[in-house]
Design goal:
The complex is a heterodimer. Chain A is 28% helix and 18% strand. By secondary structure, chain A is of the alpha+beta class. In chain A, the strands form eight sheets. In chain A, strands 17-23-16-22-20-21 form a six-stranded mixed sheet, with helices on both faces. In chain A, helix 15 links the parallel strand 20 and strand 21. In chain A, helix 18 packs antiparallel against helix 19. Chain B has 13 helices and no strands. In chain B, 42% of the residues are buried. Classes of the chains: A alpha+beta, B mainly alpha. At the A-B interface, helix 1, helix 10, helix 16 and strand 22 of A face helix 2, helix 4, helix 5, helix 6 and helix 12 of B.
């Protein structure tokens, strides 16, 4: 045997060793579950929640991995239901909502306590809401609280305009022709006799703040002098009205939340917002301990200082290693918290996570963890969690540059993608033609976008001046199309690459156009997309902040920053009209019309509705593959009786 | 000798400052922000964040503040991504993890590498020589992101012997796979360097003299040949140890270890400016110190080397 041969044999042996173990793994795919099913010795849950949390401060991070941790550590007025994500009572026992959903009164439970034993009362909510909006907090979630009256103005450090002679404030409706009708919460109390549904309690204790809120919305102007002067110069009527008046900064005390009494919180919204109750479960509305935050400033979340109010409290935290939380005996419902402890392991590397899961080092993992290549094996297992997710994948189009500024071209590229085939190939997603995820919002008449139609696609391209010709071999070509003006950008990740290549192949096959692909790191990609510093297509994905179609439709509500350059006042007006509609069915219809209007303009190409795609051991009970992958941890428990295990995705029917 | 050391240490300081400055400039040039996400933030919120972290100030003020903190208190500031965590604390906390894995791996590499390399050199062109060098070649060419998963596949997922990842404290079974993965390439290098160094030395005059004096082969090898033959290994050890101590990005990621390397790559991807600067500075300092140690070690090992 020559030495070279020996070397080769060595290599082959090594490969065979690796191969044989791999085939063992594959052979074990006949088993019911993926890997070990031995429950942990102690009454704990070991969970991978994604990347290392940015902060344990619920006002700071807008990430989903953090949201799950915040659900263990903090509570708000309401909590997500484990199956439906609808708001369940939490620190608020019950609530009352006025007739146009613009005023909410919450009645707190009297036994709420912080982890240091201090009682929780209405002032904790007032403090936490104001803090989330304060400029110094710089919360990335602050925009979610903008539905509170003057919240946006406070967050943006705006000013009111007051007449020093009379003490009267200028009103918004006098200077804005498109200003919508005032909600009941801003209407005079006397005229609001019909404000609350009949047969319920009256509008409960009268307060000066209540009277103050029930006045027409005041005009606010930018606090920054330069911005204000610019704005006034553009509006002579406003400038004239402001002359001689004084500017009063909007403070936290102006924001529409008050502690009516020790256990009553009243919230005033700037508009009717039927989705607000569901939004309240979001992390930004969870309360933080004033004394601790003020004492330790940014370091208040360090394990030695932190005080929390959720079912669990921090026991140990070593970043990039683990965050251990234990049952908080002070928690008002501690008797019903089933687990002793949850270990959150940070990792964002899917194979690493799946390995930990398979050998039984963790009991459940976050969503989107099963790599595409593993699906064949894992999807057949009874511990695979399959469920539709409140998330969508789509492509953004830079509508400001030719040839994509032509709606016919945009439509052609949309029509040329066989989304059914894509979904079949991806296996776990559902094809999508509209902009809201399918099957998530019950009763929502989701509009249908255009279906796969290559004939029409080629016709539209021809109409736009780029005729598609059929070559002798049956393939297409589009010689006039400026391929150097269009590309497809995405952030570096295996699944994004697969999607990009798939779309590229579709366009090549059906339009004869080869779009070049370009990948970049996440932050560079975000920057390019936000600044419209790309030509053609960019990958996009969005998951719901709250369970309402508006969380998707609002991506194009705020104008220029949506990454497509598409902006339409009519669309904004349609959404405004829908949101001020009291009848929920009618509101959904109006929202659907707006959605249809938006997808017809095609600033985006919808691709699919996502899937939760995760795994949990059969002995982990009380944990459901809901559409947001958010779990009220106190209901989760370890079942040691095999007969009671979950064999398959647990039923999501409401209790 | 002392003058040499002092002089070298003094040169270190400006070098570090230049490294920090270049790093700082590169971060400023990189597109994107630590706070950017899938949905672009409203301008007012973006402004508040920039003000909170002083990113609204002119560049020279930001640079001045960074450098002042470092020069005055050796304080690299607070991480942008990890709210409220100081860079110094992060380094202090993650260094032991990286160092434990790195030092164990290097120790293993030294023992296995030097033994294998010496035997290969002494029995040149033997079966042992060829097979060990072939294996060393394999060790050098198989990257650790391939070797790591293969080891996990075999020993964790296949045989259920060892945990596939995560930090389990020191010492623990969790260390075995990352240490093996990390040491492979160093073992291979050291084996080859030792073999080459030994072969050269074994042919030199002073070895012939030693043999002629009638010393036993054992004394010739251990007292004379090894000392000279290890010179290449010593110069390799400096930078290698510096990199091992400060964490290895790939291995820490595959095995989910809370070490410096893991932080380093995440900090770069997250545009976490103070953390990147802190870790880069730390790596630079370690590297320079290790090189200095190597030079000092040279003087002891090789009588021909003298520093003025």
């Amino acid at each position: 045997m020559s030495d070279k041969l020996r070397q080769i044999v060595g290599l082959v042996l090594l490969a065979a060793l690796a191969g044989s173990t791999y085939s063992c793994t594959v052979a074990s795919s006949n088993e019911e579950f993926f890997g070990s099913t031995t429950p942990p010795a102690r009454n704990i849950l070991r969970y991978v929640t994604g990347d290392e949390p940015e902060s344990l401060d619920p006002a700071i991070s807008n990430g989903q991995p953090e949201a799950r941790i915040y659900m263990a550590l903090y509570e708000g007025l309401v909590e997500y239901n484990g199956k439906t994500l609808a708001p369940d009572p939490a620190l608020a026992e019950r609530w009352r909502i006025n007739n146009d959903s613009s005023e909410y009164t919450f009645y707190l439970r009297h036994n709420g306590r912080w982890s240091n034993g201090d009682p929780i009362d209405a002032n904790d909510f007032v403090y936490s809401f104001r803090r989330a909006l304060a400029k110094e907090t710089a919360s990335r979630n602050a925009y979610l609280t903008y539905t509170l009256k003057y919240a946006q103005a406070y967050n943006e450090q705006a000013v009111f305009v007051r007449d020093p002679a009379t003490g009267q404030f200028l009103l918004a409706k006098d200077f804005d022709d498109s200003f919508p009708a005032e909600p009941l919460s801003s209407s005079p109390i006397d005229g609001a006799k019909g404000e609350y549904p009949s047969g319920t309690e009256g509008p409960a204790p009268e307060t000066p703040f209540h009277r103050q809120m029930h006045t027409p919305t005041r005009l606010t102007l930018p606090g920054n002098e330069k911005a204000r002067v610019k704005m006034l110069d553009a509006n002579p009527k406003l400038k004239a009205a402001v002359t001689g008046k004084e500017f009063v900064p909007v403070t936290g005390k102006d924001v529409g939340i008050e502690a009516v009494d020790k256990y009553t919180v009243r919230i005033y919204l700037v508009q009717p917002a039927p989705f607000f109750l569901g939004l309240l479960a979001h992390q930004v509305f969870r309360i933080v301990p004033q004394q601790v935050v003020e004492k330790y400033k940014e370091a208040w979340t360090q394990p030695e200082h932190i005080v929390t109010c959720g079912p669990f409290k921090v026991k140990f935290w070593r970043p990039y290693d683990k965050l251990v939380v234990e049952r908080d005996p002070m928690y008002w419902d501690a008797a019903n918290v089933k687990l002793d402890e949850i270990d959150f392991y940070p990792s964002s590397d899917n194979p690493t996570i799946m390995n930990l899961y398979k050998v039984g080092e963790v009991d459940a993992v976050l969503n989107h963890t099963v790599p595409n290549a593993w699906l064949d094996v894992v999807k057949e297992k009874k511990d695979y969690m399959n469920g539709v997710e409140a998330s969508i994948d789509y492509l953004l189009i830079n509508t400001t540059k030719p040839p994509m500024n032509d709606v016919r071209v945009r439509k052609a590229f949309n029509l040329a993608i066989d989304k059914d085939a894509w979904a079949a190939w991806r296996r776990i997603v559902k094809p999508l033609t509209a902009f809201t995820p399918e099957g998530i919002f019950p009763g929502y008449p989701q509009p249908k976008g255009e279906q796969f139609n290559t004939e029409e696609a080629r016709r539209l391209l021809g109409e736009a001046g780029y005729p598609v010709v059929k070559k002798s071999d049956g393939s297409y070509s589009c010689p006039k199309f400026p391929v150097d003006q269009v590309e497809y950008i995405y952030n570096t990740q295996e699944s994004n690459k697969a999607m990009a290549e798939w779309m590229q192949a579709q366009w090549k096959q059906n339009l004869g156009i080869t779009i070049s692909l370009r990948n970049m790191d996440w932050k560079t990609f975000l920057n390019a997309r936000a600044k419209l510093d790309y030509k053609g297509f960019a990958r996009g994905a969005w998951s719901a902040d709250y369970m309402d179609p508006f969380t998707f439709l609002s991506l194009f509500y705020t104008g220029g920053e949506n990454g497509t350059g598409w902006q339409d006042p009519k669309y904004v007006a349609m959404l405004d009209e829908a949101n001020s509609t009291l009848d929920n069915k009618k509101r959904y219809e109006l929202l659907a019309q707006a959605e249809k209007y938006m997808i017809d303009a095609q600033p985006v190409i919808p691709i699919d509705t996502g899937s939760v795609n995760w795994v949990k051991k059969p002995y982990v009970k009380g944990m459901y593959p809901n559409a947001g992958s958010l779990f009220p941890w106190k209901y989760v428990y370890i079942e040691r009786d095999q007969a009671k295990w979950d064999y398959g995705t647990p039923s999501m029917a409401a209790d | 000798m002392l003058r040499f050391i002092v002089r070298r240490l003094l040169v270190t300081i400006p070098t570090i400052l230049v490294v920090i400055t270049i790093t700082w400039g590169l971060i400023k040039l990189a597109p994107g922000n630590f706070y950017s996400g899938e949905k672009k933030l409203p301008p007012a919120i973006e402004k508040s964040i920039r003000e909170k972290y002083g990113l609204d100030k002119p560049w020279y003020q930001q640079y001045g503040k960074t450098m002042w903190g470092i020069l005055r208190h050796f304080d690299f500031g607070t991480s942008l991504r990890f709210e409220g965590q100081s860079v110094n604390t992060i380094i202090r906390r993650s260094l032991p993890v990286s160092a434990a894995v790195g030092l164990l791996a290097y120790l293993l590499a030294l023992i296995v590498g030097i033994t294998t390399g010496s035997v290969a050199a002494l029995k040149q062109n033997s079966r042992w020589d060829y097979s060990s060098m072939a294996l060393a070649m394999l060790g050098i060419s198989v990257p650790n992101f391939v070797l790591g998963p293969i080891l996990v596949l075999v020993f964790s997922l296949g045989l259920y012997w060892l945990p596939p990842s995560r930090w389990g404290g020191f010492p623990s079974r969790n260390l075995i796979l990352p240490v093996l993965t990390l040491s492979a390439i160093y073992t291979a290098y050291i084996a080859r360097l030792t073999r080459a160094g030994m072969l050269e030395v074994l042919r030199s005059d002073y070895i012939r003299t030693a043999r002629a004096k009638g010393l036993s082969e054992r004394d010739v090898v251990i007292r004379h040949a090894l000392r000279g033959g290890l010179m290449p290994v010593v110069s390799f050890t400096g930078p290698a140890l510096a990199f091992l101590l400060t964490g290895t990005v790939v291995v820490e990621r595959i095995f989910a270890l809370p070490g410096l390397g893991n932080y380093f790559i995440q900090a770069a991807l997250n545009r976490d400016e103070p953390l990147i600067i802190g870790i880069v500075a730390f790596i630079a300092i370690t590297l320079l110190l290790m090189n200095l140690l190597v030079d000092i070690a040279y003087a002891y090992l090789d009588p021909r080397v003298r520093y003025q």
